[in-house]
Write a structure and sequence with these properties.
Strand order of the largest sheet: 2-1-3-4-9-8-7-5-6
Radius of gyration: 19 Å
CATH class: Alpha Beta
Bound molecules: zinc ion
CATH topology: Rossmann fold
Order of helices and strands: EHHHEHEHEHEEEEEHH
Structural class: alpha/beta
Shape: globular
Distance between the termini: 39 Å
């Protein structure tokens, strides 16, 4: 298929090296599990990258060839160079690259740089989570029921220090009484951003069909848009719109 969406799945990838429980859950890494279900879509071209790869897996030639960047990070956010996080933000803002932050990526440098807050939240032990679909007409919610029982997941609770979302698609209820805005979007520059909360490394939720559907939908939604008009880069000097319209009329 022509014009495939180029997806890069970035994973910190260190839990899988050190923790037997995570290795057993995700033998090919969290990135491998995500790549496996996304590869069922023949309009996606999938690459994976991890923190311990050269250039953190994202040399310029990879980043600049990525339409949608998915990000899973947890313990080693600080090992991601500021310069790289800045390049990711700039590519979202100016080139329209989609960015999908998963689970503990709420504290990752790229997510914080893109949305502009520190991403702090309330945290608790594993408990039952029910995810409510608040915006069923949104492309990311296509095929998702009114609510679904995720099973046991690490509790992420409010207050969640994010800017007011542009769209609030999913909200979660936790057994202990907490609630959490678990699926939110942002429009930044000419790019689209989605944060989705499930995906703790010792839980099987990247195998959950609804989680897979939501992330698959999100990749397609976040893909850069083709514009019918020039998108300004920097501050180009240009004709004012009235002169432009008059000139177009005169040419007719
Ligand atoms: Zn976690």
């Amino acid at each position: 298929m022509e014009n495939k969406i180029k997806v890069t799945i970035w994973n910190e990838g260190r839990h899988e090296k050190k923790n037997a429980k995570v290795q057993a859950m995700y033998p090919n890494g969290i990135h491998g599990a995500i790549a496996e279900f996304l590869s069922k879509c023949d309009d996606l071209e999938i690459r994976t990258a991890t923190l311990d790869d050269p250039d953190c897996g994202l040399p310029d030639e990879v980043l600049n060839d990525t339409d949608v960047l998915m990000w899973w990070g947890h313990m080693h956010h600080n090992d991601v160079p500021e310069e790289l996080a800045g390049k990711i933000r700039d590519r979202v803002y100016s080139e329209g690259m989609g960015f999908i932050a998963m689970h503990s990526a709420h504290k990752s440098k790229p997510f914080r740089y893109i949305v502009g807050t520190d991403g702090n939240l309330s945290w608790g032990e594993d408990q039952r989570e029910i995810i409510w679909n608040l915006l069923p007409q949104h492309p990311i919610a296509a095929g998702i029921p009114e609510y679904f029982d995720l099973g046991v997941e690490e509790m992420y609770g409010e207050p969640f220090r994010i800017p007011q979302p542009d769209e609030l698609i999913f909200t979660s209820w936790f057994e202990g009484g907490n609630i959490f805005r678990s699926g939110v979007t942002y429009y930044r520059g000419i790019g689209k951003v989605f944060y989705f909360q499930p995906g703790h490394e010792t839980n099987p939720h990247f195998y959950n069909p609804y989680v897979q559907k939501i992330l698959t939908n999100a990749v397609h939604w976040a893909a850069p848009q083709k514009f019918e008009f020039p998108i300004p880069v920097g501050c180009p000097k240009r004709m004012n719109p009235v002169d432009e319209l008059n000139e177009a009329k005169a040419e007719k």
